[in-house]
Every structure is written in C-alpha cells, then in structure tokens.
Known about the structure:
Chain A has five helices and three strands. Chain A has 185 residues and is mainly α.
Amino acid sequence: MKSRLISALIAGALCVTIPASKAAAQRSDSSRYDGQALRYESSWGSARIIRGADGPIVGTAGWFRGIDVEKVVAGSPAARAEARAYKSNSFRASVVETLGATTTVVGVVLAANGSNNAATPILIIGGVGAMVWGAQQFHTAFSALSRSLWWYNRDVVRASLSPPPAPVAVPTSQAEQGKRNEHPE
Amino acid sequence: MRRLFIALCATQLFLLGATTMSAQDSSYDENALRVESRLGDLQIVRGISGTVVARAGLFRGPRVTNLVSSSEPALAEAKVFERDYNPGQYMAAAGIALLGAAIGAARIPDLNNGITSGLIGSSVLLIGVGGFKLESAYRALSKAIWWYNRDLKR
C-alpha cells in the first residue's frame, strides 16, 4: 500500500514537473534568443548588425569600413567561416567598385570635353563593367554575412554560446575543414 | 518493483528532455529563414540546405507574408515589407529613367532649361523617396525573418 502511494506520488510529481520545466526551458530559450540573436539591416550600401528585434547596433559594415564580424560571431565556428568569406568579398568589392567608379568618371569627363580619344569609350565600358562586377561581389558578401548570422543564431538557439560572445583563438585550417564538413552548405 | 518504476520514470524524463532539445535544433536547422542575394536577385532561403522559398522578380517582391504567417510580429513586419517594396522599386526605377531623360534633354541645344531642371529635380526626388521606401522595406524584412526564426521553436 505504501509502495503504491509512493509510486502514485512520483507519477503525479512527474506530470506536474515535466510541463512546467518544458515551459521554463522555452521561456529561457526565447529570452536568450531575444538578448543575443543578431540580424543585419542594409542601409544605403552598408549593413548594420543589430542585436535583437530593436536592440543595440553592434556595428556597421560596408564600403571600406566595418566591424570585425568574425569577432562578433566568434562563438560559432560555422558563422566564423562565413564571416571570413564576407570580409574578403566585401574588401574586394570595395576596391573594384572604387576603381570602376573612378574609371567611369574619368571616361565621362573626357567624353564631355569633346575628346576624340579612342580610349574614352573603353574607359567608360570598363569602368561600368568593373562596377557591375563589384556590385556582384557585394551581393556575395552580404549573402555570406546573412549565412554567418544565421549560423550564429542557430548556435544561440542550441545554447552553446556564452553571453556575450568573446573572441576565441582562430582554429587551425584542419579543424576548420572538419567543421565545414560537419555543416555542408 | 518500486525501484523499477522509479528507474522507468527517470528514463522517461531523460528521454523526453533529449527529444525536446533535438526537436528545437532540427526545427531551426530545417525551417529558419535567411535572405541571400544571387546575381542581384533577392532570395529567401530556408534551412541548412538553403532551399529557395521566395524570390524577388522584376518589380515584384517576394511573398513574405505567406512564409512567416505563423508568427504574429513577423507577419506585421512582412506586411510593412510588402507595402513598401514595390512602390520603392517603381519610384527608384522611374527616377533613374527620368535622370536618363534629363541627361538626354540637356544635350538638346534649344530646349528650355526649365524642362531639364524639372526632370533632374523630379528624378532626384523619385530616387530619394524610392530609396527610403526600399530601406524601410529591407528593414522590415530583416525584422520579419528575425521574429519568424525566434518563434520557430515555440
């Protein structure tokens, strides 16, 4: 009789505890996501990285400027790999866009001055072409940034990050390759 | 017997916890959205596999409200995106077209200067207003996706 009573009490306690602990875990997950999850907003060619729905701006990235995204997402290896791709593409895009714009302006100025130089149309076409290619690189860069923040937020959900994310040692290329294999795109 | 029952309960509790965690992870991995841009096209992709679930066409924004309707705050932001994206695109495109017309008009020798100035002024205004609308739309899209991904695990 006593044994049955104890069993019934344990079963009753489980019925109460399990839903309550699940609800508490969900609340905890939501507040962790609210406080840590990142997103980016484009703003006239640059990207503001924001923590939370209306949270603080972590930094602004874009045209020859930017915070170290790799540092911001340091707690997530997959996010860090994408942040590196963002950084290299963004720098390349900035250089090519600047060169393209300068070449185009020089070409237009020469054409406006009535110069019959044969190089003028080449300058304009080459400049515009470089700008288009640079814009493409910017798109690639922002896609990498989007993926980086996606991976970072995924790890926030998994609660494998400790707030606030601190810079960590850059992994060896072999370790990184292993991670990439773990998360194939 | 009692010990067996307690052991079963403990195992059940452990398994339930593990299942809950795994379900949350897979929900994000499979369903969380993000914005990508391929060859200048705005795309919304889902999950690790990167399945394209919506894309912007010429003067037509991606249908975001259908995608994020499961989350109320996301839906509200998606409506702002759909309200501002198309007008922003139209205005910016019209502004660029007017700018081209203004440059063409400037090269016509006997044309009234007022026409050229009017065209340039209108084009700048249209590009500016269109740009602001597009900025507002992109901001709303970013929030909509953030809220949607946040509410995925509920």
